[in-house]
Design a protein that fits this description.
The complex is a heterotrimer of chains A (169), B (160) and C (413).
Chain A: H1 3-10, E1 15-21, E2 24-29, H2 34-43, E3 51-59, E4 67-75, E5 80-88, E6 94-96, H3 105-116, E7 119-121, H4 157-163
Parallel strand pairs in A: 2-5, 6-7
Antiparallel strand pairs in A: 1-2, 3-4, 4-5
Chain B: H1 2-7, H2 17-27, E1 31-32, H3 38-47, E2 70-74, H4 82-91, E3 97-101, H5 103-107, E4 128-130, H6 137-153, H7 156-159
Parallel strand pairs in B: 1-2, 2-3, 3-4
Chain C: H1 3-7, H2 13-16, H3 22-25, E1 30-34, E2 46-52, E3 55-62, H4 70-75, H5 83-87, H6 94-109, H7 115-144, H8 147-168, E4 177-178, E5 181-182, H9 190-212, H10 216-222, H11 230-235, H12 240-244, H13 252-255, H14 276-299, H15 318-321, H16 325-336, E6 344-352, E7 355-363, E8 371-375, H17 377-383, H18 385-389, H19 394-403, H20 408-412
Antiparallel strand pairs in C: 1-2, 2-3, 4-5, 6-7, 7-8
Helix pairs in contact in C: 6-7, 7-8, 7-14, 7-19, 8-9, 9-14
Classes of the chains: A alpha/beta (169), B alpha/beta (160), C mainly alpha (413).
């Protein structure tokens, strides 16, 4: 079954756009319906995307909508992949959690919350995953600096050495 | 007795107290089993059969800081790990030494970013730095021998 | 200090709500912190365990102690520069990481890879798999109490590291795969070294199996422990030997062949029960299958170039620089500015020693990647750990952690 046609038929108002690049199919869908769409992809005969490979987020700054959440579904039965993408605005990056359909999404969504600051509603345990709990900001956002520190070479050794916080005994 | 027969009737050996202490410290310097990242695998290689770190009195890697003398910081230290590292250092009994193994631990290495501490000497005082990404086991052993040489130089007035 | 003061949880109780059961909040069960400095957590994994005696009621993993910011740092580097970062992600299979990132770049720019390079990639990826499984076996057995296996495995691993050093000059962080092929062709010492290893290693696998496979102590500690049903494994996103130990036949090398894996004949070992022992059996059989693939790749190694001839993306060989102005220009452009792939997003998956390693690469047409994301197997397997560890003893938890073969660098990136 053609996944795009099936999704368009089942969710005529939720499918925004489809793209194909290097043989990979991307379906851009409405974030509000993502749980239903995932459930449909998993349970419909002929689609059966039973395996959630990956969930990740992108920051498209300065474009608007700014954020994207990308779901990579895979069907072991049909050996096919499908990419679902949800676009979110900068002011309100909130999307429902897909844990009820794919339990594997749990840590992926926590990671996206941690590194990109996208909120997932109905997530059972939305805490920071990788960064310390008291960390400020979301490092993978494009307006977050890399945190580069000046490298100490022989020509600027003393300059850098003055500011370097050496540990005390 | 074994010692008497070994010495072959030489009777008494006289030695300076600080030399005896330094010798005993270098011959049984237990490192802490403190693997962080890639370098930890090379540290395990150094401990394993081909390189056999126990030749240098490092028979045992102690996972507990309270039983160890040498902290080998093997791998990149993140901002999340830094407080843990300092706490482990504080728990080690005196005298204690720190060996920073690999580029990441020594200066941040190729990871010059928000997450990595740019050199573990910002958190704990380091005695020996070992370069390499990751250093070969030979390099680690060289670093340890360098540390031994340093320990042998210590004098009584350093301790009081 | 009285006993009741010692046994009360000193931290903020609010933080524990929802993570552990109500019994822990009343003090009926004990909350124990395991890690991040612990000999059996394979690095810097922290586990919050809720215990009823020795039994685990709930297990909350806390990761991120090795979060290196690799994804962010790669955005600040050009495509080819960023390969060095991927080595240090899953530091037990650096070539596997190189491979997935190179495949993603090649898919993005639609770059051809010569057959010889593809074969050498397969060969080295399989040697890396053996290398990684050796460290897994060494540490897994050490955790359960078999010290001698550790020494044997590291002895054999040195031979593999020598081979990697022959091809790339580095023992671990080889950065040998490049977009469009390899860094350079393998030297002539390579083939005899691999053949030596092929003759030497099968007997060593027999030795490990003699020590462990039917050892009653090993069986007691592994059979029936850490059970994961096939449905749960798929639901929780498990892949690789962890999934196949539960009897699901899904190997990316067979399902979605990449880098000409379809030219090779090999079997996918499967377990039946989904416990620690079956995952062990699957990995031991994979060692033999990997050797089989390496032998085929070496016997059928085609001749020809090892880098694509597409000068817009692949630098010209150094021999051309003295004769061709065009080659100089390409060389200069590639090493100062880098190449500009078309706009688009690709996702590539490979079978790493631990499972599905995916790379999501988004390009905006500039010489630096807009977003690189790695879907790493350890990350997903660790999120499935609470499910596997429930109602087991602490001593078994160590075996379960070993059986899913975690690498914290792979998890935290």
């Amino acid at each position: 079954m053609d996944p795009v046609a099936a999704l368009r038929e089942a969710f005529p108002d939720a499918v925004r756009d489809t793209q194909e690049f290097r043989g990979e199919l991307t379906v851009i869908v409405d974030g509000v319906r993502i749980v239903d769409i995932c459930r449909h992809c998993r349970d419909t005969a002929g689609l059966e995307y039973n395996f959630l490979s990956d969930v990740t987020g992108i920051d498209y700054l300065p474009q608007e909508p700014r954020f994207g959440v990308v779901y990579h579904l895979y069907s072991m039965l049909h050996n096919r992949s499908l990419r679902l993408k949800v676009l979110l605005s900068a002011e309100n990056p909130i999307v429902p959690s897909v844990i009820p359909v794919y339990a594997a999404a749990n840590w992926f969504e926590r990671e996206i919350y941690d590194l990109l600051g996208i909120m997932f509603t109905d997530h059972p345990d939305l805490r920071r995953l990788l960064m310390p709990e008291d960390w400020d900001g979301h490092p993978l956002r494009k307006d977050y600096p890399l945190g580069y520190e000046t490298v100490q070479f022989s020509f600027n050794f003393d300059e850098v050495d003055r500011h370097k916080p050496y540990a005390k005994e | 007795m074994g010692l008497t027969s070994k010495l072959g009737g030489m009777g008494v050996v006289t030695v300076k107290l600080e030399d005896a202490i330094n010798w005993s410290r270098t011959r049984a310097m237990w490192p802490m089993l403190f693997g962080l990242a890639c370098c930890a695998i090379e540290m395990m290689s150094a401990q394993a059969s081909n390189y056999d770190l126990s030749r240098f009195g490092m028979e045992l890697m102690r996972p507990s800081p309270r039983q160890s003398d040498l902290m080998i910081v093997a791998g990149r230290v993140t901002r999340k790990m830094a407080p843990v590292l300092r706490q482990l250092y504080d728990q080690m009994p005196e005298p204690k030494w720190v060996l920073s193994m690999g580029d990441c631990a020594s200066c941040g290495g190729i990871f010059n970013n928000y997450a990595i501490v740019q050199g573990v000497d910002e958190i704990v005082p380091v005695d020996v730095y070992v370069a390499g990404c990751p250093p070969r086991p030979e390099q680690l052993i060289h670093g340890i021998i360098t540390l031994h040489e340093r320990v042998k130089q210590e004098r009584l007035d350093d301790w009081v | 200090m009285t006993v009741s003061e010692i046994t009360t949880w000193q931290g903020d109780v609010e933080q524990l709500k929802g993570l552990v059961s109500e019994r822990a909040l009343s003090g009926e069960t004990m909350v124990l912190n395991m890690g991040p400095q612990h000999p059996s957590t394979h690095g810097v994994l922290r586990l919050l365990l809720e215990l009823d005696g020795e039994n685990i009621i709930s297990c909350v993993p806390d990761v991120g102690f090795l979060h290196t910011g690799i994804e962010k740092n790669m955005e600040a580097k050009r495509y080819e520069q960023a390969i060095t970062m991927t080595d240090r992600m899953d530091y037990l299979s650096p070539m596997g990481n190189n491979l997935v990132y190179c495949l993603a770049m090649e898919k993005l720019i639609d770059l051809d890879v010569p057959l010889r390079a593809q074969y050498i990639r397969v060969l080295l990826a399989e040697l890396t798999r053996i290398n990684s499984h050796l460290v897994w076996l060494a540490t897994h057995a050490l955790d359960i109490g078999a010290m001698s296996v550790f020494l044997y495995c590291f002895r054999e691993r040195e031979k593999l590291l020598d081979i990697f050093e022959i091809v790339s000059g580095q023992r671990m962080m080889s950065t040998y795969f490049r977009p469009g092929g390899l860094w350079r062709d393998v030297p002539e010492e390579f083939e005899p070294a691999v053949r030596d290893f092929l003759d030497y290693f099968p007997g060593k696998i027999d030795d490990y199996e003699n020590l462990l496979t039917s050892n009653p102590l090993w069986l007691d500690r592994t059979q029936g422990i850490g059970f994961l049903s096939a449905d749960d494994a798929i639901r929780l996103g498990c892949s690789g030997p962890t999934l196949r130990g539960s009897g699901v036949n899904w190997d990316i090398r067979k399902a979605i062949p990449y880098s000409s894996y379809d030219h090779f004949d090999f079997e996918v070992p499967l377990g039946q029960h989904g416990d620690v022992y079956d995952r062990y059996i699957v990995r031991m059989k994979e060692l033999r299958q990997s050797l089989h693939i390496v032998r085929q790749a070496l016997d059928n190694l085609p001749g020809g170039p090892v880098r694509s001839n597409n000068r817009k993306y692949v630098p010209p060989p150094r021999s051309e620089l003295g004769q061709s102005m065009e080659a100089v220009i390409h060389h200069f452009k590639l090493w100062t500015e880098g190449f500009r792939p078309p706009e688009g997003e690709v996702y590539v998956r490979v079978e790493s020693p631990r499972g599905e390693l995916g790379c999501f690469l988004a390009s905006d047409g500039s010489p630096k990647p807009w977003r690189v994301h790695f879907r790493t197997p350890t990350f997903v397997h660790l999120s499935a750990l609470p499910h596997m560890a429930k109602d087991h003893l602490i001593a078994d938890l160590v075996g379960i952690i070993g059986s899913i073969d975690i690498v914290l660098g792979d998890c935290d990136r």
